[in-house]
Inverse folding.
């Protein structure tokens, strides 16, 4: 890990570590906030598939966010202890993040029909269409059933089966691709943080060696003066 000299080829390691810590803090704060507000499709739809996962997902997100705060302190004060702690935290963060997105994707794929039903009843989740219900959605199988759109009600943004099928398919593809790139980026960030912590540790060793050399030199001068 010590082979890294710069973050992203041009950013100093200390500043890069701070920006990475800021990334974890900001991104996962937004993730947690949108989950609480009901506008995060992955959080809500995977929660509808498995209710306990909704709370575990948010817990993982908050933990990763707090880990980023620790890293910001460490990089601001060039603290070896904080940097070492953040190195452990950032790798734990990456592991939790992979688990979070893989489980979310698996739950959404395995409960795709439920996502389509939720979309047909209430429309697809988004900033302008918040949904806080994490109960599985079951629609009537009657050919005569169709949600009635009425402003101010749960069905105000209800979609057709065809449009919902297409929206869910597109979302799963985009979510899977973006999550994959996102995780690779975070593992690179974790390597940069490890390189910064290693540099601080090695720098401390060099300082101790330099101090010891000065002490030895002064002692040798003293002994030589007593001889002569």
């Amino acid at each position: 890990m010590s082979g890294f000299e710069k973050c992203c080829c041009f950013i100093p390691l200390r500043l890069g570590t701070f920006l990475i810590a800021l990334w974890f803090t900001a991104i996962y704060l937004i993730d947690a906030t949108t989950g609480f507000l009901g506008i995060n499709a992955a959080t809500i739809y995977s929660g509808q598939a498995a209710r306990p996962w909704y709370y575990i997902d948010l817990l993982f997100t908050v933990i990763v966010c707090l880990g980023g705060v620790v890293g910001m302190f460490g990089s601001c004060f060039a603290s070896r202890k904080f940097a070492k702690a953040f190195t452990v935290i950032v790798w734990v963060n990456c592991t939790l993040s992979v688990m979070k997105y893989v489980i979310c994707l698996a739950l959404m794929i395995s409960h795709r029909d439920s996502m389509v039903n939720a979309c047909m009843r209430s429309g697809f989740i988004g900033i302008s269409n918040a949904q806080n219900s994490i109960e599985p959605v079951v629609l009537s199988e009657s050919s005569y059933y169709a949600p009635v759109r009425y402003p101010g009600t749960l069905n105000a943004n209800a979609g057709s089966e065809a449009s919902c099928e297409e929206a869910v398919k597109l979302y799963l593809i985009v979510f899977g691709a973006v999550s994959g790139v996102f995780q690779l980026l975070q593992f690179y960030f974790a390597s940069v943080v490890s390189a910064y912590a290693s540099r601080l540790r090695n720098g401390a060793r060099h300082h101790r060696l330099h101090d010891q050399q000065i002490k030895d030199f002064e002692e040798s001068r003293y002994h030589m003066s007593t001889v002569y």
Remarks:
- The longest strand covers residues 6-7.
